[in-house]
Amino acid sequence: MLIISNDEVRTLLTMKDCMAVLEEAYLERHHQRALSRPRTDLYVPRGDDAYYVFKSMEGLLPVKHVAALRINSDIIKWRKTPEGIRKDKQPLADGNWVGLIALFDMHTGKMMAILPDGVVQGFRVAATGGLAIKYMARADAKTMGLYGAGWQAETQVISACVARTLEYIKVYSPTKAKREAFADRMSRIVGIPVIPVDKPEEAAQGLDIVVATTNSITQVIKPDWIGPGAHVSCVKHLELGEDVIAKADFVAVHSQLTVPENYVIGQGEKRIYGQDPNEHGEHKASETGWESAVELHTILGGEVKGRENDEQITCFVNNIGLGLQFAAVGALVYSLAKERGLGINLPDGWFTEDVHP
Asked: Are residues 306 and 166 in the same domain?
């Protein structure tokens, strides 16, 4: 049984490889040879404007003989800012956060590895967005606009550069110093100009690809900023808002599973489908209408075209994560760690039992 650290994941994982294994996994899903369980969040209010949230999801990828369980143990606060409502996970575990991926061998049932989910999280979300760009953006797309300058924005820039040969990227974040530092750092990483802009519309108007990757749960892009032929995507649908999505000629979602199943202390064991509490702290069901939407895997599998012509506005809504992603990327990380002798080996017997469960 192998323990793998975030630092080791960073040395092992590349965006190109991550996109390749996810593309394979989505094709397996398309042919009904892989499986995910919808994400489940358990909420408990703490009495200090924060919630304790326990999140889990699972996935099976039989072609790799791997099952994955991803769990998060979070304290979350939602705060109002001039730009909208922000969702912040509090680092209260001795200054850290708690997110883990457990991998299991489908041949024997044994646990293969435990690794943190942080680096994998950034890669798998961005790699999915990169695959959407590969299949849905115009073939000649050369420019990109980005909303957000945090950790997920970094990997979104890298995946876009894998999917298309870009000439430059414009980035907007409400904090001037943050967007400027991000632009300087990412320009050096991807080797093309990443340009900080002062107005939010400048990160969308006239650009071929527009990506929202913020911690906002309110709209950050306006529909009149999006021009013909653009491809738009997000890490959560609330960043785009209904009117931006409605403006698109073609919309694909990550999954028809739509939003997580929430269970809230004080409301019984009733499932509430939604992404986050609203500004009043209320958990209400989300009406998304995505139950019959086109899923990304159907585009990768060739069942549906990602774009009909260069004038279409296409939109990819990364509406929910899948346990399958963690099985696919986790299997890759595990294989590379074994190959390169990384990680800490622990006795298998610590993770099995001689008593029938």
From this structure: yes
pLDDT at 260: 80
Q: pLDDT tens digit string along 2-16?
A: 999 999 999 999 999
Burial 192-226 (b: 16+ CB within 10 A, else e): bebbbbeebebbbbebbbbbbbbbbbebbbebebb
Where residue 238 sits, what CATH number does that domain have? 3.40.50.720
In 10 A of CB 2, how many CB atoms? 19
Instruction: Give 121-173 as a 3 state SS string.
Output: HHHHHHHHHHHHHHHHCCCCCCEEEEECCCHHHHHHHHHHHHHCCCCEEEEEC
- Residue 136 and residue 91 in contact, taking contact as beta carbons nearer than 8 Å: no
Is the whole model's pTM more than 0.85, yes or no? yes
- Domain count for the chain: 2
Rg (alpha carbons) of the chain, rounded to whole number: 20
- Residue-wise pLDDT for 31-72, tens only, equals 999 999 989 999 999 888 899 999 999 999 999 999 999 999
Q: For residues 331 and 171, what is the distance between their CA atoms, to the nearest angstrom? A: 33
Q: Say yes or no: 90 and 138 in one domain.
A: no
Tell me the residue range of the domain where 149 lies. Answer: 125-259+286-317
